[in-house]
Structure formats: C-alpha cells, structure tokens
C-alpha cells in the first residue's frame, strides 16, 4: 500500500488560479483580483497603470471593486499592478 505523507487532520491549502479571485486592499476599499494566464488572454486591453495596451497572450491581472457588479473591471499589466502602491495619489483609474 502506498504511503500517505499528508496527515488526515491537516487541511488542504486552497489553490489559486484564474477561477479563484482573491481580495486585496485598494485605495477605495476592498478589490477583487484575478490573475489571467497568457493562454486565457484573448483580447487587447488598455492598462490603467501605464496607459499601454495589453496584447493577447500576455499574462495580466484583472481587478474590480468588491462591492461592484464587475462592470468596473480593469485589466493591468502584472508589473503595473504590483507597482500601484508607488503611484502618485489620484492616478488610480
């Protein structure tokens, strides 16, 4: 019989992926964030961080207000999303 290394009482860690949005603090309150892999990126989007286009096939981040209905979603380059806290006030789009 194969050996099991996981203890029975140890809970499984949740996996993150394109279908598992996470909650982070934003300038206007909680923000839902989803990381999109390159294979899932099929359209051209405009990044609010640098105002450049995100080309199809480019991994990126989608963020929207937690209390919103998703109509306020914004697609960010991963680097722009990671640098959002270092931006000047009022530059969050």
Automatic annotation (TrEMBL):
Chain residue ranges for the region called Disordered: 1-32
Protein name as catalogued: ATP/GTP-binding protein
């Amino acid at each position: 019989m194969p050996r099991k290394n996981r203890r029975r009482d140890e809970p499984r860690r949740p996996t993150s992926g394109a279908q598992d949005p996470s909650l982070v603090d934003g300038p206007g309150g909680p923000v839902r964030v989803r990381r999109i892999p390159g294979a899932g990126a099929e359209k051209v989007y405009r990044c609010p961080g640098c105002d450049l286009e995100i080309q199809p096939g480019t991994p990126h981040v989608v963020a929207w207000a937690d209390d919103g209905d998703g109509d306020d979603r914004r697609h960010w380059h991963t680097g722009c999303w990671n640098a959002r806290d270092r931006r000047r006030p009022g530059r969050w789009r």
